Structures are given as C-alpha cells and as structure tokens.
Amino acid sequence: MTTTVQEFAHQHTVLLTTFKRDGTPMGTPVNLAVDGDHAYFRTFDKAWKAKRMRNNPEVTIAPSTFGGKPTGDAVRARVTLLKGEEARHAAKLLGRKHPLLHGFLVPLFHKLKGYRTLHYRLVVVT
After folding, report:
1. By the 8 A CB rule, do 21 and 55 touch?
2. What CATH number does residue 108 fall under?
C-alpha cells in the first residue's frame, strides 16, 4: 500500500523525525497543512531540527499525539526550505488550518524572540 501525504490532511500533529550526521533519529511534533501532494510546516531558524534538515532533507513523519507520541506508522519524506511566495502560501495554509496556534501564537512568539520563521514543503517518498 502506498502512503500519500493526503493521509495526514486531517491529522492535527505529526511526529517529524530528522537525523543527526551520525544517523541518530530525533523526533519533534509539528503541525502540517496539506495541499495536494505535499504538506507544509514551519519552525524557526535556531531550532536544531532546522540545522539537521539543512544537512539531510530526508525525514520521516508519523501521526502522533500533541506531545509527539506516535499513533501510527512512519513514512519516509523529503523536505525543502521555501522562500518568497511559496513560503507566504505555506504560512497562509498553516494559519487557516490552525488559526490560534499558527495564525497568531507561533508568529508572535517568533517575533518576540527575534527568530526568523522558516517554512518547509514536505513530500512523501514512495
């Protein structure tokens, strides 16, 4: 059975697993907004996962609880850092799906802390 990103469209939180240079997996819960055959998520520039994704864009995602406990099987995916209009589109989709969290709280927190918000596109690898 082939998994598509559409299977995560109604999932509130997913466990995003990135990998250290030595291959050690590191999981972090994130919120996705799905659009067609790809999904979007955001983080901030000083987050360790951002550094790991710069070094290795191969990740896995699994449905999870808000705290990051997996509730289903993980699938392989690849991430791409977005810029310009595509990053703005990702921000709009995230804000629409998670209005309080990504429409208000996360952008405010990033601004108050002086972080640069990074948006990523995620595509499931089959």
Report:
1. yes
2. 2.30.110.10
pLDDT truncated to tens, each residue of the chain (126 aa)?
Answer: 457 899 999 999 999 999 999 999 999 999 999 999 999 999 999 999 999 999 999 999 999 999 999 999 999 999 999 999 999 999 999 999 999 888 899 999 999 999 999 999 999 997
**Tokens standing for residue 48:** 């360790």
Q: Is the pTM of this model over 0.70?
A: yes
Domains of the chain: total:
1
Do the beta carbons of residue 46 and residue 106 sit within 8 Å?
A: no
Q: Whose CA is closest to 59, among 97, 101, 90, 17?
A: 17
DSSP for 85-121, written as a single string:
HHHHHHHHHHHHHSHHIIIIIHHHHHHHHTPPEEEEE
Residues with Cβ < 8 Å from 16, sequence gap 6 or more?
Answer: 27, 28, 29, 30, 41, 49, 59, 60, 61
Residue-range definition of the domain harbouring residue 55? 5-124
Say which DSSP state 82 is in.
-
